[in-house]
Amino acid sequence: MKVIRIPAGIYAANCYIVYSEKDKEGIVIDPGGDADDIIAKIEELGLDIKYIILTHGHGDHIAGVKEVKEYTNAPVAIHKDDKYLLKNGKSNLSSIMAMGTIELTPDIILKDGDEICFDDLKAKIIHTPGHTPGGISIKIEDGIFTGDTLFAGSIGRTDFEGGSFKDIMESIKNKIIIYPDDTVIYPGHGPTSTIKMEKLTNPFLRY
């Protein structure tokens, strides 16, 4: 698995291009803006993007979806409980963000336990609500893409529509940090981390 991180848009949401070197098939996770940069990297690497997967439906993670989809012709996937966010500019907060109102219709509706295959890689969909009702994390090989559920040293906000502190803590403790200590965390904002590092240093995970 190869991972390219592109901090995208005015909120620097991490867009990830994940691909296999075997046949250069890949996915794009959370194209949150700067679509030209994302497309340029896809072109540079000569990738065949099979899916655009959204960890949740907030505006700062979806602002580049339209352009990346037009270029790649890849279907857009989101969890069923965040479908409403994607389609409502007020609920997804884009209407109050500098990128302007964004309202989209997904092509694929995901649920917990779904698996998305591309090339010789398999992405496991893990429903991790709390930041949003339909937030997901995506487990691929020895990495987990946590969106705005878990960050290096922090967790996602729960004061937006549909957010729940109880849910996000249960998601992190029961669905994310259960993986081996050397599992790499690829968050929706900020630097990467590992399960071990978060257990040791994240103030929200002190037992």
CATH superfamily: Ribonuclease Z/Hydroxyacylglutathione hydrolase-like
Backbone structural class? alpha/beta
Structurally, the number of domains stands at: 1
Figure out the total of helices.
5
**Can you tell me the CATH class?**
Alpha Beta
Using the coordinates shown, work out and report the CATH topology.
Metallo-beta-lactamase, Chain A
Strand order of the largest sheet: 1-2-3-4-5-6
Low-confidence parts = none
Q: Looking at the structure, what is the overall shape?
A: globular
What fraction strand?
A: 25-35%
Describe this structure in words.
The structure is a single chain. The chain has helices at 35-45, 65-72, 83-86, 165-176, 195-201; strands at 2-8, 13-19, 25-29, 48-53, 76-79, 108-110, 115-118, 121-127, 136-140, 143-147, 150-151, 154-155, 184-187, 193-194. It has 207 residues and is α/β, with parallel strands linked by helices. The protein has one domain (2-205): 4-Layer Sandwich (Metallo-beta-lactamase, Chain A). The longest helix is centred in the last third of the chain and has 12 residues, at 165-176. The radius of gyration is 16 Å and the shape is globular. The chain starts with a strand and ends in a 6-residue tail after the last helix.
